[in-house]
Amino acid sequence: MTLSALCEQCQHCTGCGLSQTRNKLVFGVGPENAEVLFIGEGPGQQEDLQGEPFVGAAGHLLDDMLLIVDLGRDNCYIANIVKCRPPGNRDPLETEQEACFPWLQQQIEILQPKIIVCLGRISAQKLIKPDFRITREHGQWFSYNGIPIMAMYHPSALLRDPSKRPESFRDLKILQQKVSELCTHTP
Ligand code: URA
Ligand code: SF4
After folding, report:
1. Residue 49 CA: which ligand is closest?
2. Closest Cα partner for 117 from 104, 128, 129, 131?
3. Tens digit of each residue's pLDDT (9 = 90 or more) over 42-80
4. 92-131 tens-digit pLDDT
5. 42 lines ligand 1 (CB under 6 A)
Protein backbone atom coordinates (compact mmCIF):
# COMPACT_ATOMS: atom_id res chain seq x y z
CA MET A 1 0.00 0.00 0.00
CA THR A 2 1.22 3.50 -0.86
CA LEU A 3 0.09 6.82 0.55
CA SER A 4 -1.38 7.81 -2.80
CA ALA A 5 -3.44 4.60 -2.94
CA LEU A 6 -4.65 5.20 0.61
CA CYS A 7 -5.49 8.78 -0.35
CA GLU A 8 -7.66 7.46 -3.19
CA GLN A 9 -9.59 5.24 -0.78
CA CYS A 10 -9.99 8.04 1.75
CA GLN A 11 -11.50 10.51 -0.74
CA HIS A 12 -14.98 8.97 -0.45
CA CYS A 13 -14.98 8.51 3.33
CA THR A 14 -18.30 9.02 5.09
CA GLY A 15 -16.98 7.82 8.44
CA CYS A 16 -18.34 10.80 10.37
CA GLY A 17 -20.72 13.73 9.98
CA LEU A 18 -17.97 16.07 8.73
CA SER A 19 -18.30 14.32 5.36
CA GLN A 20 -21.60 16.17 4.87
CA THR A 21 -20.20 19.68 5.15
CA ARG A 22 -16.74 19.35 3.58
CA ASN A 23 -15.85 20.83 0.22
CA LYS A 24 -12.58 18.94 -0.21
CA LEU A 25 -11.17 16.24 1.98
CA VAL A 26 -7.65 17.09 3.18
CA PHE A 27 -5.73 13.83 3.29
CA GLY A 28 -2.20 15.18 3.77
CA VAL A 29 0.79 16.16 1.62
CA GLY A 30 4.40 15.23 1.36
CA PRO A 31 6.75 12.74 -0.25
CA GLU A 32 6.33 9.01 0.44
CA ASN A 33 9.84 8.97 1.97
CA ALA A 34 9.39 11.95 4.33
CA GLU A 35 11.11 11.39 7.66
CA VAL A 36 9.34 14.05 9.72
CA LEU A 37 5.57 13.98 10.14
CA PHE A 38 3.67 17.09 11.33
CA ILE A 39 0.12 16.57 12.53
CA GLY A 40 -2.30 19.46 13.00
CA GLU A 41 -5.89 19.48 14.14
CA GLY A 42 -8.15 19.72 11.13
CA PRO A 43 -8.64 21.67 7.92
CA GLY A 44 -9.64 25.32 8.12
CA GLN A 45 -11.51 27.28 5.49
CA GLN A 46 -8.68 27.61 2.97
CA GLU A 47 -7.66 23.98 3.42
CA ASP A 48 -11.25 22.83 2.87
CA LEU A 49 -11.41 24.83 -0.36
CA GLN A 50 -8.01 23.75 -1.69
CA GLY A 51 -7.77 20.18 -0.35
CA GLU A 52 -4.29 20.78 1.10
CA PRO A 53 -3.25 21.11 4.74
CA PHE A 54 -1.86 24.35 6.15
CA VAL A 55 -2.30 26.64 3.15
CA GLY A 56 -4.00 29.53 5.03
CA ALA A 57 -2.48 32.06 7.44
CA ALA A 58 -1.36 29.36 9.91
CA GLY A 59 0.21 27.51 7.01
CA HIS A 60 2.36 30.48 6.04
CA LEU A 61 3.66 30.63 9.59
CA LEU A 62 4.29 26.87 9.51
CA ASP A 63 6.38 27.37 6.37
CA ASP A 64 8.50 29.95 8.21
CA MET A 65 8.85 27.56 11.16
CA LEU A 66 10.06 24.79 8.83
CA LEU A 67 12.67 27.13 7.36
CA ILE A 68 14.09 27.82 10.83
CA VAL A 69 14.96 24.12 11.13
CA ASP A 70 16.16 23.76 7.53
CA LEU A 71 13.15 21.66 6.63
CA GLY A 72 11.09 22.45 3.56
CA ARG A 73 7.68 21.07 2.72
CA ASP A 74 9.43 18.60 0.41
CA ASN A 75 11.16 16.91 3.38
CA CYS A 76 8.04 16.61 5.54
CA TYR A 77 4.67 15.01 5.50
CA ILE A 78 1.85 17.18 6.85
CA ALA A 79 -1.51 15.82 7.97
CA ASN A 80 -4.29 16.45 10.46
CA ILE A 81 -6.21 14.55 13.14
CA VAL A 82 -9.44 14.94 11.15
CA LYS A 83 -9.40 15.15 7.36
CA CYS A 84 -12.59 17.13 6.88
CA ARG A 85 -13.25 20.65 8.12
CA PRO A 86 -15.23 21.08 11.35
CA PRO A 87 -17.87 23.75 10.58
CA GLY A 88 -16.78 27.21 11.72
CA ASN A 89 -13.39 25.77 12.76
CA ARG A 90 -14.77 24.34 16.01
CA ASP A 91 -12.68 21.69 17.75
CA PRO A 92 -13.23 18.25 16.21
CA LEU A 93 -15.49 16.15 18.44
CA GLU A 94 -14.07 13.08 20.16
CA THR A 95 -16.34 10.90 18.00
CA GLU A 96 -15.03 12.56 14.82
CA GLN A 97 -11.42 12.12 15.94
CA GLU A 98 -12.06 8.45 16.69
CA ALA A 99 -13.77 7.88 13.35
CA CYS A 100 -10.88 9.47 11.47
CA PHE A 101 -7.98 8.02 13.46
CA PRO A 102 -7.60 4.76 11.45
CA TRP A 103 -6.70 6.84 8.37
CA LEU A 104 -3.89 8.56 10.26
CA GLN A 105 -2.74 5.26 11.78
CA GLN A 106 -2.41 3.82 8.28
CA GLN A 107 -0.57 6.90 7.07
CA ILE A 108 1.94 6.48 9.91
CA GLU A 109 2.22 2.74 9.22
CA ILE A 110 3.08 3.36 5.57
CA LEU A 111 5.31 6.39 6.12
CA GLN A 112 7.26 5.03 9.11
CA PRO A 113 8.43 8.53 10.07
CA LYS A 114 11.57 8.99 12.18
CA ILE A 115 10.01 11.88 14.09
CA ILE A 116 6.43 13.05 14.72
CA VAL A 117 5.53 16.64 15.67
CA CYS A 118 2.06 17.43 17.03
CA LEU A 119 0.85 20.93 16.24
CA GLY A 120 -1.36 21.99 19.12
CA ARG A 121 -3.26 20.46 21.98
CA ILE A 122 -5.83 18.41 20.05
CA SER A 123 -3.13 16.52 18.16
CA ALA A 124 -0.98 16.01 21.27
CA GLN A 125 -3.93 14.76 23.32
CA LYS A 126 -4.77 12.24 20.62
CA LEU A 127 -1.23 11.00 19.89
CA ILE A 128 0.72 11.48 23.13
CA LYS A 129 -1.76 11.25 26.02
CA PRO A 130 -5.33 12.37 26.73
CA ASP A 131 -4.30 14.71 29.55
CA PHE A 132 -1.44 16.36 27.65
CA ARG A 133 -0.87 19.95 28.80
CA ILE A 134 0.46 21.97 25.90
CA THR A 135 1.63 24.91 28.06
CA ARG A 136 3.72 22.64 30.29
CA GLU A 137 4.74 19.80 28.03
CA HIS A 138 5.52 21.37 24.65
CA GLY A 139 9.09 20.74 23.52
CA GLN A 140 9.42 17.46 25.46
CA TRP A 141 10.01 14.11 23.80
CA PHE A 142 7.56 11.24 24.23
CA SER A 143 7.12 8.02 22.25
CA TYR A 144 4.43 6.99 19.80
CA ASN A 145 4.86 3.24 19.27
CA GLY A 146 8.61 3.75 19.56
CA ILE A 147 8.73 6.86 17.35
CA PRO A 148 9.99 10.05 19.06
CA ILE A 149 7.11 12.51 19.26
CA MET A 150 6.86 16.07 20.58
CA ALA A 151 4.28 18.81 20.56
CA MET A 152 4.60 22.49 19.92
CA TYR A 153 2.09 25.31 19.91
CA HIS A 154 -0.22 25.35 16.93
CA PRO A 155 0.76 28.10 14.45
CA SER A 156 -2.74 29.60 14.89
CA ALA A 157 -2.01 29.96 18.60
CA LEU A 158 1.23 31.77 17.73
CA LEU A 159 -0.70 34.12 15.44
CA ARG A 160 -3.15 34.88 18.26
CA ASP A 161 -0.46 35.24 20.92
CA PRO A 162 2.97 36.26 19.57
CA SER A 163 4.41 36.20 23.11
CA LYS A 164 4.54 32.39 22.76
CA ARG A 165 6.93 32.59 19.81
CA PRO A 166 10.22 32.45 21.75
CA GLU A 167 9.09 29.15 23.33
CA SER A 168 8.30 27.77 19.89
CA PHE A 169 11.67 28.90 18.62
CA ARG A 170 13.30 26.83 21.37
CA ASP A 171 11.07 23.87 20.50
CA LEU A 172 12.14 24.15 16.87
CA LYS A 173 15.79 24.04 17.90
CA ILE A 174 15.06 20.91 19.96
CA LEU A 175 13.42 19.41 16.88
CA GLN A 176 16.38 20.40 14.70
CA GLN A 177 18.75 18.55 17.04
CA LYS A 178 16.64 15.38 16.78
CA VAL A 179 16.44 15.70 13.00
CA SER A 180 20.23 15.87 12.80
CA GLU A 181 20.49 12.73 14.99
CA LEU A 182 17.88 10.58 13.28
CA CYS A 183 17.23 11.72 9.76
CA THR A 184 19.36 10.75 6.79
CA HIS A 185 18.18 12.70 3.77
CA THR A 186 17.16 15.83 5.65
CA PRO A 187 19.89 18.33 6.69
N1 URA B 1 -4.97 24.21 11.08
C2 URA B 1 -4.78 22.88 11.19
O3 URA B 1 -4.74 22.32 12.28
N4 URA B 1 -4.61 22.19 10.08
C5 URA B 1 -4.63 22.73 8.87
O6 URA B 1 -4.46 22.00 7.89
C7 URA B 1 -4.81 24.13 8.79
C8 URA B 1 -4.98 24.85 9.90
FE1 SF4 C 1 -13.99 10.34 7.11
FE2 SF4 C 1 -12.26 11.60 8.67
FE3 SF4 C 1 -13.68 12.99 6.92
FE4 SF4 C 1 -14.87 11.97 9.07
S5 SF4 C 1 -13.26 13.56 9.06
S6 SF4 C 1 -15.63 11.85 6.95
S7 SF4 C 1 -13.76 10.04 9.32
S8 SF4 C 1 -12.14 11.42 6.45
Report:
1. 1
2. 128
3. 999 999 999 999 999 999 999 999 999 999 888 899 999
4. 999 999 999 999 999 999 999 999 999 999 999 999 999 9
5. yes
Find out whether the beta carbon of 40 lies less than 6 Å from any atom of ligand 1: yes
CA dist 131 and 72 (Å) reads 31
The answer to whether the beta carbons of residues 31 and 2 sit under 8 Å apart is: no
Task: For ligand 1, say whether the CB of 86 is within 6 Å of any of its atoms.
Answer: no
What's the predicted TM-score (pTM) here? 0.97
Q: Is 155 in the pocket of ligand 1 (CB under 6 A)?
A: no
Q: Where are the alpha helices (DSSP H) in the chain?
A: 3-10, 45-50, 57-68, 94-111, 121-127, 134-137, 155-160, 165-182
Q: Tell how far the Cα of 92 is from the centroid of ligand 2, in angstroms.
A: 11
